[in-house]
Amino acid sequence: MRARKTLDGQRRSLWVEIFKNKEIYLLALPAVIWYAVFCYMPMGGLTLAFKSFKANLGIWGSPWNGLTNFESLFRDPAFGRSVGVTLWINAVELVLCFPAPILLALMLNELRMGRYKKVLQTVYTFPHFLSWVIIASIVKNLLSIDGVVNGLMANLGMEKVSFLGNKNLFRPLIYITEIWKEAGWSSIIYLAAISGVDQQLYEVAEIDGASRLQRVLHITLPSIFPTIAVMLILQMGGIMGGHFDQIYNLQNDIIASSAETLNLYIYRITFQRTPNYGFSTAVSLFCSVINMALLLSTNKIAERFGGVGLMGGAK
Known about the structure:
The chain is mainly alpha-helical. It has 15 helices and no strands. The chain has helices at 2-20, 22-40, 58-61, 68-75, 77-96, 99-110, 114-125, 132-143, 148-155, 167-195, 199-207, 212-236, 244-250, 262-271, 277-306. Helix 6 crosses helix 10 (167-195) and helix 7 (114-125) crosses helix 10 (167-195). The two termini are 37 Å apart.
């Protein structure tokens, strides 16, 4: 009886606190509604992964077929290839592209000319606002057989190179364009973290005779490590996806098989042959489960070794 009264008292105090801060909750309400409608309600559609979808019956009326879609999925050789391509591209991107905005932020932070620094930030950030359609058009005009680069090579007496038709050159092109487009935008997060570092630490280190490189290595990097850890965890949580717009616009028939990631595989089986929405949903669910497992594992590792995780903080 006493426990029930205590529980009722806690509920009343909760509603009192909500009423006191009603303006804040009203401001948050549109975001909560948006997530509920567009992120949580559509999760009911994941049941299609275990159904044989019939358009006339709808999602809820379609018959269940157990794990049939997943059995078909793992028997498809193209699925295995797309998993391998996705993991390889994202693993190499993690090594090459993830550090790029960190290095850019560190270099921009070391600039002492304020106006020049702002100009560079604007220049590096601008490509983020270009769609992959535009960037792919620029790349094709530059690197196609009849493009600018091959034209210059021909004028210099060199043989033309099929940059876009060479499987060995296409993947490096993915990483280069990804860095060019997103490094400047992502560096804003690290610059914001750097701006929060206590300036007295730099002053003391300078008095002790530390060089600029030593200050970066022993003050700046350790101070922004929590931000780096969170960004790494989030990137690991998307390692089975991404790159659809980029590869879809850059690819061609010659290199299509070596660049078909899981997102492109889902697109092909859904829109380029007789649609099987249950099968497509099974692929998406598989990707989501693997991404969730990677995210939670990386988060746990970060907490154990660095004391920093998505939920904030040191253990």
